[in-house]
Amino acid sequence: MSKIRTAAEAVRLIRDGAMVAVNSSSGLCCPDVVLQALGERFDAEGHPRDLKSIHPIAAGAMFGSLGVDHIAKPGMLARIIGGPTRRVPEIQHHP
Questions:
Q1: Average pLDDT over residues 23-48
Q2: Is residue 19 part of a domain?
Q3: What is the residue range of 70's domain?
Q4: Residue 58 CB: number of other CB atoms within 10 A?
Q5: Distance between CA atoms of 59 and 68, rounded to whole angstroms?
Q6: Which residue would you say has higher pLDDT here, 6 or 80?
Q7: Burial 20-41, CB ≥16 within 10 A → b, else e
Q8: What is the SS3 assignment for 33?
Q9: Is the N or the C terminus of the chain less surrounded, counting Cβ atoms within 10 Å?
Q10: Is residue 2 part of a domain?
C-alpha cells in the first residue's frame, strides 16, 4: 500500500479534537491544498470539529495563499496557537 495520499485522503485521517500543526512561513511552503481540503471536508461533513491548530506564523496570507483562512469556520477550531501576520487573516474574526 502506498504511503502517498491526496490532500482529501490525508484530511480524512484527522479526528475531532486533534492537534494540527501547520509548518509555514506566511505564504512560503504553506500547505494550502491540504488546508483547503480540510475546510472542504468540514463544510461537507461537519467534521473534524474542535481542532487545535498550531503554527509559528500565520500560515498563508501571501502570494495568493489563503492558508489558515480555509479552516476559519465556527465549530471547526477550539484553539489557535500561532504567530503574527502582515494582514488580519479571516481566522481572527471567528471566536
A1: 87
A2: yes
A3: 7-93
A4: 27
A5: 6
A6: 6
A7: bebebebbeebbbebbbbbbeb
A8: helix
A9: N
A10: no
In contact, 9 and 44? CB cutoff 8 Å: no
Kindly state whether residue 11 falls inside one of the protein's structural domains: yes
**Pairing status of strand 51-55 against strand 77-82:** parallel
Read off the pTM.
0.81
Which segments of 13-90 does DSSP mark as H helices, in order? 32-45
44-68: average pLDDT:
81
Q: Would you say 3 and 36 are in contact if contact means Cβ atoms under 8 Å apart?
A: no
For 8-22, what is the mean pLDDT? 95
Q: What is the grid cell recorded at 27?
A: 505564504
Per-residue pLDDT band at 85 (split at 50, 70, 90): low
Domain count within the chain: 1
